[in-house]
Amino acid sequence: MLSRDAQPLALYVHFPWCVRKCPYCDFNSHPLRGEVPETAYVDALIRDLDFELRSFDTALAARGLGSIFMGGGTPSLFSDAAIARLLDAVAARLPMAPDIEVTLEANPGTVDESHFRGYRAAGVNRLSIGVQSMDDAQLRVLGRIHGRDDALRAVDIARRAGFDNLNLDLMFALSRQTPEAAETDLRALIALAPEHVSYYHLTLEPNTAFAAAPPPLPDDDVAWAIHTAGQALLAEAGYAQYEVSAYAKPNRRARHNLSYWTFGDYLGIGAGAHGKIGTGVSGIRRRARHKLPRLFLAGAGSAAALQSDSVVESADLPFEFMMNVLRLHEGFAPQAFVDATGLALDSIEIPLVRAQTLGLIERTPQRIRPSARGRDHLNSLIELFLPDA
């Protein structure tokens, strides 16, 4: 296993605009008013990357990139020429792994065939398409700008453009959704044969329109029945669940997301983007950019773009580590905790014993992983590692 300092970095790029804000969304997204400021925003992203690279020692850049994820918002509002210019600028500054994974999120309502071909030519080799439901009535409740036919068209265009690695997002426990309707929805998605499925429970997040005026949602028992039936259906179709909401065909796990879940280092650029870098002597540093596009655009290329810049305290490292790695079904190797945090495994012996006693983890000298019970009560498991727990 490579040491943390030798592992490739991940790069997250945030695109903050959407056609309109979905009522369930708590991500940093802003309704588009007028044209997308492509040139100005890509210029700002490049300046932001330069600032980030100047902030750390040269050894950071030498690690290169193992993955790039362009998320939002709606990155597919940007033209293929804009994405190509950005990726060319990144490649000029950071060496890329020969098998780098480059993902772009796309909304089925903003699909353009020529753009998809251009994205592929620019180096994007994975698309993550926000289908969310294959039911037009549910899509209307969710405030989506697309319908079922748009989702079918998006997948068809992606395949014809040469993409052989697709993730499709699907939500469950939707408004008045029955187990039978949820199964029909998931079967329709599986029929599209994506390589990866992100299967999410719709939740009412604070400060969203749904939190203020929630739709009628299934009760917990119905939601749980939908969830477990969905897990079984995905397994039957050949998708292995490896994380809370992630299911993949063989060798198609999301490499970029795995960098988060294994507590790897990643740079974040763009409005509202977060980054995490282990900086050796000074520990682990987290940065976040201003969420408002105008503030980010004004400050990009300097510390003025930062909303926060802090070092994670040693006491918080176990919780931060566990909050990520325990999402993975396979858990982690004990040495990975030592390498990622700089702490001895003995420092978490008390919560580990408590978790094992409660039946929430399975533990061997080689591996510590959440048990089936631990996966079902993940929040309770992770909370055991809070500093004051």
TrEMBL record:
SUPFAM superfamilies: Radical SAM enzymes. Keywords: 4Fe-4S, Chaperone, Cytoplasm, Heme, Iron, Iron-sulfur, Metal-binding, S-adenosyl-L-methionine. Its cofactor is [4Fe-4S] cluster. Residues 3-243 form the Radical SAM core domain. It is found in: Cytoplasm. InterPro entries: Aldolase_TIM (IPR013785), Coproporphyrinogen-III_oxidase (IPR034505), Elp3/MiaA/NifB-like_rSAM (IPR006638), HemN_C (IPR010723), HemW-like (IPR004559), rSAM (IPR007197), rSAM_sf (IPR058240). SMART domains: Elp3 (SM00729). PANTHER family: COPROPORPHYRINIGEN III OXIDASE, RADICAL S-ADENOSYL METHIONINE DOMAIN-CONTAINING PROTEIN 1, MITOCHONDRIAL. Belongs to the anaerobic coproporphyrinogen-III oxidase family. HemW subfamily. Probably acts as a heme chaperone, transferring heme to an unknown acceptor. Binds one molecule of heme per monomer, possibly covalently. Binds 1 [4Fe-4S] cluster. The cluster is coordinated with 3 cysteines and an exchangeable S-adenosyl-L-methionine. This is Heme chaperone HemW. It comes from Banduia mediterranea.
